[in-house]
Amino acid sequence: MFRKFAAVVIAVGVAFGTAGCNMVNPVASIEAYTPSDGAQADLGKVAARNFILLTHGEHRWLVGTIVNSGLENQQLSLSYEEEGATKVQTITLTPGQKFDLGYNGTSALMVKTATQAGALFPVTLSAQGVEPVALAVPALDSTLEEYKLLINKLAADADIEIKEPTAVPTVSPTKDASHGGDH
Fold first, then answer.
1. For 42-95, what is each residue's pLDDT tens digit?
2. 39-157 belongs to which CATH class?
3. φ, ψ for residue 109 (rounded to 5)?
4. Which range, 25-34, 44-53, 98-107, has the best average confidence (pLDDT)?
5. 102-115: string of b/e by CB count within 10 Å (b at 16+)?
6. What span, in angstroms and rounded, lies between the C-alpha atoms of 153 and 105?
7. Residues 108 and 154 sit within 8 Å (Cβ to Cβ)
């Protein structure tokens, strides 16, 4: 009798012990997330996705995607600081429309700002009937190959010549005390 009871207790313990991780922690693979480097925001039926400020030298391009999942036209306003003044760009989206800014062959929004790669560029998004959203847009440069290709395309579209830096190695003699001379 005791052996049967012990076997049942062990079996129940093993079952709960091996399956218990899902009872306490949610399954991470079913959590929604946006796998990108850019900033995201939801404004009612309007979604802003993968907003990035691309940088090269003194040039800056704001890129991103806006989607209207609603059944009515929607207006989205983007406001940001440019040379000390607030600039506002308004985009009207038809029902179900996806609007690319700088992706898929479309033009990006050239922005005059001193924001450097690694910093955050503040953009405020406003849509009808919802509270405005402050978006901290990451500024990225051509360090990553996928952004280098996009920056080169955006620059070519704007007739901006991108010059690759040329590094010339220099060799200078050093004094090595352990060998007593120059090398």
1. 999 999 999 999 999 999 999 999 999 999 999 999 999 998 899 999 999 999
2. mainly beta
3. -95, 110
4. 44-53
5. bbeeeebbebebeb
6. 9
7. yes
Q: Please tell me the distance from the alpha carbon of residue 153 to that of residue 142, in angstroms, as a whole number.
A: 12
Is 50 within 8 Å of 40 (Cβ atoms)? yes
Residue 80 · residue 111 · CB < 8 Å: yes
Q: Are 95 and 54 in contact (CB under 8 A)?
A: no
Report pTM.
0.73
C-alpha dist (Å) from residue 8 to 19, 21, 40, 177: 16, 21, 51, 75
* Cα–Cα distance measured from residue 107 to residue 158, given in angstroms and rounded to the nearest whole number: 9
* pLDDT, average across residues 3-25: 66
Domain residue limits, the chain: 39-157
